[in-house]
Amino acid sequence: MMFKRTIFDAHHLELKDQVSGFLDSQVVPFHDHWAAQQATPRDIWHQAGENGLLCRTIPAEYGGHGGDFLESVVVIEALADRRISGILTCLQSDIVAPFILKLGSEAQRKRWLPDFTCGATLGAIAMTEPQGGSDISALTTTATSHGNSFVLNGTKTHISNGSEADVIIVAARSDDPGAANAQPAISLVMAETERQGTHRHAISKAGMPALNTGQITYENCVVPETNLLGAKGMGFIYLMTFLGIERLVLAIYAQAFAERLLYDLIADCDGRPTAEGTVLDYQNTRFSLADLYSSCAVNRAFIDQCIVAANAGHPDPKSACMAKLRATETLRQIAALGVQFRGAAGISGDSGQQAMQDMSDSAVQSVWGGTSEIMLDVIGRGLASVL
Ligand SMILES: Cc1cc2nc3c(=O)[nH]c(=O)nc-3n(C[C@H](O)[C@H](O)[C@H](O)COP(=O)(O)OP(=O)(O)OC[C@H]3O[C@@H](n4cnc5c(N)ncnc54)[C@H](O)[C@@H]3O)c2cc1C
């Protein structure tokens, strides 16, 4: 670990060993193959469940581990530290499951959460549409009331686990404003993917290739009203609220990924001999890496502060935007130098392939969960209130 941290206790460190053991034996040896295939075997989700990687914070009464947010952090960081994208458990555990826990009825929690924890059910959340993902209020997928059902129509794109998930939280425009008042009338509907009128396919991509990413089209897909999450028409407010924790989760992943890349790059520069010593002995290399090391140290302190606040039940959405912005932009700088400072080895052979993959994987981080421009917009809109 690069930086001294004080947020974990012995129990978290024990969990870290358990998670690391599973990832090193069951995931890392196969991950390059999954990335090349752009597919991760479904069984690995069951194994992840059996080995305690899923739904750490979901209460035991709903089949979860009843742990604190720090347990989730342990799992997220263990994944990022190994550059794992194929089985991004935080999507299931810390982004999708909390919607069901916090907004779902007792029946909905009991129906889905135990299977989320053991990996029998794979979940996803679908906000983004082909015409744009940054402005959620402009989404056009509709959930039209029809008797005791909703009828879904529209297309969602770039959805993580989208073409493999068993159930997807679909953000769709309702046909009446419900309780949303001035907000766009969006509702969140749990749509099982086996339902008629669901058409989907995987999207191939350069970044995080082992992670399934799908496009889903709903064509008169009938979903019972009992699958509505929370109140009708309140979806926009729910999404904005939950995006805070989603962005913190993505910042945690990006920060641990950045530290891994920087650590590897320092080691490679130090190990590459030159006529005068090593690549690390060049002043330019040292200055650049010292600058990024300092950024990582400062980001680490701020993100740990955000983690502690979230663990105490006080996550701050704006701080999450700042954390995601800084962690992902620093990560992208490190990944770019990971190519340059390795010379030809940064673009050729196994090391070059890894450096290029790191660049592509890094590019994903400043796009999903809201782009860096959107982070700046959210932070910027609150500037007057800091005076
Ligand atoms: C690997 C991957 C996984 C994903 N998983 C999911 C998922 O599980 N669920 C889901 O719903 N979505 C998911 N997404 C989609 C992701 O959230 C969107 O890609 C992202 O929100 C940006 O939307 P967009 O791609 O439509 O870009 P656009 O919104 O079209 O933006 C294009 C460009 O315009 C800029 N821009 C847009 N609005 C503004 C503005 N107001 N001010 C300044 N600049 C602006 C953007 O920053 C960007 O540079 C995923 C994306 C990727 C790459």
From TrEMBL:
An example molecular function term from Gene Ontology annotations: flavin adenine dinucleotide binding
Domain Acyl-CoA dehydrogenase/oxidase N-terminal: 11-117
Species for this entry: Yoonia maritima
Coiled-coil intervals, chain numbering: none
PROSITE patterns for the chain: ACYL_COA_DH_1
Listed PANTHER family: ACYL-COA DEHYDROGENASE, ACYL-COA DEHYDROGENASE FADE4-RELATED
One of the Pfam families matching this protein, by short name: Acyl-CoA_dh_1
Lineage start: Bacteria, Pseudomonadati, Pseudomonadota, Alphaproteobacteria, Rhodobacterales
UniProt entry keywords in alphabetical sequence: FAD, Flavoprotein, Oxidoreductase
Cofactor: FAD
Residues in Acyl-CoA oxidase/dehydrogenase middle domain copies: 124-221
Domain of life: Bacteria
Record-annotated Acyl-CoA dehydrogenase/oxidase C-terminal domain positions: 233-383
Protein name from the UniProt record: Acyl-CoA dehydrogenase
Gene3D superfamilies xrefs: Acyl-CoA dehydrogenase/oxidase, N-terminal domain (1.10.540.10), Butyryl-CoA Dehydrogenase, subunit A, domain 2 (2.40.110.10), Butyryl-CoA Dehydrogenase, subunit A, domain 3 (1.20.140.10)
